Inverse folding.
């Protein structure tokens, strides 16, 4: 029997690949290669860059000069399969499609993940438009339907973010790590002794903090406030607000609540003044 | 000499992994496994699921029943390294951390990418919060700082999107494919004969269409309109609007332009009436 129509297919598996202290080979030194370097440095990998110096883009050159201990540069063409075996990932950014194709075939044989810029059918994975704000990373993929639309989506999403998200996420990460010390997750050797009750309570409490606190308040979770939140919140199984923790009264409504009525109030006053003047002028 | 401080590090490499017709092994059948199945089906892979039937979550069971030709299910525990060699990716979703750790070690030896749910230090890659709208896919990663914040960011981004983005991107993809037939990209054998002039003109024209057209207009790019846009736009090296293409006059400004002044105008009138009434009452 055939499966029901799968309207969930046709996409990619979006993942956050871990490259800390891994080795990445980039073949090619043009502008595209320079953006690959950005992405790979973000993920803390070591880069081996292979490209004749005459084809180096100024941006690539600048990055090589700026990060000598992170990028090992060789002024030559790719030399063959021996270069691939010690690599955890290979990226080609070349004008010559046949050259890229040969490298991709070697990578596939050696089971090394590979991306060939501009030749989607050779790629194990694609890049997308990226947003970075500290620990927050967002990728936008149009699944090969054009980089321009991905850039537009990126702009739209950036407009929707306040710029405080990365900071808030970082502080929540610290809170979470501190909480895990008080309520440890699964031991490495096996099952939780309490059948996971503590873990579930921890996740529920963390969710409530994230849901109930404003983003702005989360950014104010310094180390002292975190200790206080754990002592007076987690230990008593409640979620106090930042104001309660700091012993402040509830803050008054922000000014914008009033200011949104300002045009209407102003117009009312203006209308009253105009009518008075008109009537007064007629009376004279 | 040490490199300058790298404030771009500390992140992941966000990528769109390609799994069409690839083989993915999922070990475990709980709720987390069921969400892994969703992600992998999105990317059109074939799934081998290994988990004793007594531990199957209802959601996992439902998916196995719904997609029998996409998911091969074995009612047993993972049997050993032989299961890994034919796989392109392995995902574990187990309560038993030691069991997960053993599987991850086998995968690393066989150079098969692996993710172990809840044990970040064993993972080649992480999952994140995901948004899907046709060809548009968005991933939000907090780099291990908590799924709750990722879910909040997801909600924020979803609110910023109109729901028309996927459709617009799909239609732009069709336009792009049609344009590529008229202005082919690099031949597979090597360099572009014109030094890339045509390719650059194509990219520039596509960018202008995406930038100048409203999202709503892009969704109306049916096949006939695409042909017309290529004939009257690309061939003449201009970017007509949808209205120009359809021979319509420029649409009038949307009503909202006026309606945003409505409260102020109403208040002005109300103020005038009130003042008149007060003066009139005093006169009597």
């Amino acid at each position: 029997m055939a499966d029901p129509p799968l309207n969930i297919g046709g996409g990619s598996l979006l993942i956050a690949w871990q490259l800390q202290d891994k080795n990445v080979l980039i073949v090619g030194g043009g502008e595209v290669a320079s953006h690959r370097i950005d992405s790979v440095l973000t993920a803390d990998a070591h880069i081996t860059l292979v490209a004749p110096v005459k084809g180096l883009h100024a941006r690539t050159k600048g990055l090589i000069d700026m990060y000598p201990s992170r990028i090992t540069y060789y002024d030559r063409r790719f030399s063959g399969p021996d270069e691939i075996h010690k690599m955890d990932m290979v990226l080609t950014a070349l004008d010559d499609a046949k050259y890229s194709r040969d490298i991709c075939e070697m990578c596939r044989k050696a089971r090394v993940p590979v991306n060939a810029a501009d030749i989607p059918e050779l790629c194990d994975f694609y890049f997308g438009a990226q947003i970075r704000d500290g620990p927050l990373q967002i990728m936008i993929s149009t699944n090969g339907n054009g980089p321009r639309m991905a850039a537009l989506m990126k702009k739209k999403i950036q407009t929707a973010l306040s710029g405080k998200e990365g900071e808030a996420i970082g502080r929540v990460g610290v809170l979470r790590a501190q909480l895990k010390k008080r309520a440890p997750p699964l031991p490495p050797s096996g099952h939780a002794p309490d059948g996971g009750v503590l873990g579930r309570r921890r996740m529920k409490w963390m969710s409530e903090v994230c849901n109930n606190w404003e983003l702005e308040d989360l950014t104010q979770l310094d180390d002292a406030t975190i200790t206080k939140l754990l002592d007076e919140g987690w230990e008593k199984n409640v979620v106090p607000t930042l104001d309660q923790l700091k012993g402040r009264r509830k803050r008054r409504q922000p000014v914008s609540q009033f200011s949104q009525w300002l045009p209407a109030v102003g117009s009312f006053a203006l209308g009253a003044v105009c009518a008075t003047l008109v009537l007064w002028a007629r009376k004279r």
